[in-house]
Design goal:
Elements: E1 2-5, H1 14-29, E2 34-37, H2 51-74, E3 80-83, H3 92-95, E4 100-102, H4 108-113, H5 124-139, E5 142-145, H6 148-158, E6 166-169, H7 183-190, E7 202-207, H8 215-223, E8 232-237, H9 242-250, E9 257-261, H10 265-274, E10 277-280, H11 289-296, E11 301-304, H12 309-313, E12 317-320, H13 325-335, H14 338-352, H15 357-372
Parallel strand pairs: 1-2, 1-3, 3-4, 5-6, 7-8, 7-10, 8-9, 10-11, 11-12
């Protein structure tokens, strides 16, 4: 029996919740018995005390109550523990003497706690927590990383201690069956976004308002095309923050900006299918799931050259430095030509073959087998 440890739901770490469910379903599909548990809100249910108190009440749920629940569950027929998110590496010690692996998605917050520029600044409490997480990673038996870039960060931060965990790279698979769709189906799904003009082409950005997602650069890049291309810009994800609405107005593109707030998988798939390109000038990433998702739908990606992004985009990416906003805009115009987009769409579909969830699950099963022999 594999015990999967997921994330505290009130933290709303959607991608991490998707990953843990993906592991649970993937293991079931190959006949591996697994169970998913996560810290549950008890103290954290009392949210009327304000955000500061809520944060500390959540810490009680995660770091006082859950380790006790975890130890009780481990006493009943568990052979391997898989902590699905490195931010929960603090639980490694509570899992002993069972073999433990921790999936490392990125070390941006840990690096930020050590003073590195990652757009993840840490408070005093945050610096303590990120060092605790790093110590937990160092106590694990194995640390599979989503990308080579994250692997190199882990290797550097964990040091040369011969007792450090075995590091590996296990490329993320897709957690939704993204694919090419018939035009009529695309139109039907996109009717759920009334502000989107079906007759007007658009570029797409998928992400949040976090600074590292670089939504201000997306707006500036799009504004460079406004005199040459009658397109729209679709932001899929978080509602657009007030500062970005102000910037859109300043750049005189407000009337061309559409926001699709947290679209479901069906609508997001249709957006990828219809978009001229995914515009992804991210400043920092651990992997870059939207790149793989877009490619699976045949959507070309114009992206930055930061961290694992070129690794994920492969030869199908149109890659630029963050400073080259004119280059990003030039590629938007380039892909507005149907033949050029078709060329890059073909390359995208080819690249997407690398992101197989079945292959990812098979690699994790091999890691489980290696740990079971310890």
């Amino acid at each position: 029996m594999v015990l999967l440890i997921g994330n505290y739901a009130p933290d709303q770490q959607q991608s991490m919740q998707r990953f843990s469910l993906m592991m649970l379903e993937g293991l079931a599909a190959v006949g591996v018995e697994a169970e998913l548990i996560r810290p549950e809100p008890f103290f954290g249910k009392f949210r009327s005390f304000g955000p500061f108190a809520t944060k500390w009440l959540a810490y009680l749920d995660k770091h006082l109550l859950f380790p006790r629940q975890l130890k009780a569950r481990l006493a009943r027929g568990i052979s391997i523990v898989h902590i699905c998110d490195h931010s929960n590496a603090v639980y490694v010690r509570a899992c002993r003497p069972k073999p433990v692996l921790v999936t490392c998605h990125d070390l941006l917050a840990v690096r930020g706690a050590f003073g590195e520029e990652t757009d993840c600044p840490a408070s005093t409490t945050g610096r303590f927590l990120q060092r605790w997480i790093l110590r937990g990673l160092g106590r694990a038996d194995a640390v599979p990383c989503d990308s080579r870039a994250t692997y190199e960060d882990a290797e550097r931060l964990l040091g040369t201690d011969p007792a450090k965990p075995k590091l590996s790279v296990v490329t993320l698979g897709l957690n939704y069956d993204f694919q090419r769709l018939p035009e009529a189906e695309i139109a039907r799904r996109l009717s759920a976004i009334p502000a989107l003009d079906p007759a007007t082409p658009f570029v797409l950005h998928v992400g949040s308002n976090l600074r590292r997602k670089n939504r201000d650069a997306v707006l500036r890049i799009f504004a460079r095309t406004k005199e040459k291309w009658n397109g729209q810009l679709v932001f899929a994800g978080d509602p657009l923050a007030a500062e970005y609405h102000s910037l859109a107005k300043e750049l005189d593109v407000s009337d061309r900006v559409v926001v699709a707030v947290h679209p479901d998988g069906d609508v997001l798939e249709a957006l990828y299918n219809r978009a001229t390109a995914l515009l992804y000038p991210s400043r920092f990433e651990g992997f870059g799931w939207p790149i793989a998702e877009a490619h699976a739908c045949g959507c070309p990606v114009i992206c930055s050259d930061i961290g694992p992004i070129p690794e994920v985009a492969g030869e199908a990416g149109l890659i630029h430095s963050l400073e080259d906003e004119a280059g990003f805009a030039s590629d938007v115009m380039r892909l507005s030509d149907g033949a050029e987009r078709a060329h890059w769409s073909g390359k995208s579909l080819e690249n997407a073959q690398r992101f197989s969830s079945a292959k990812m699950i098979a690699q994790y099963v091999e890691i489980y087998r290696s740990l079971a022999s310890l």
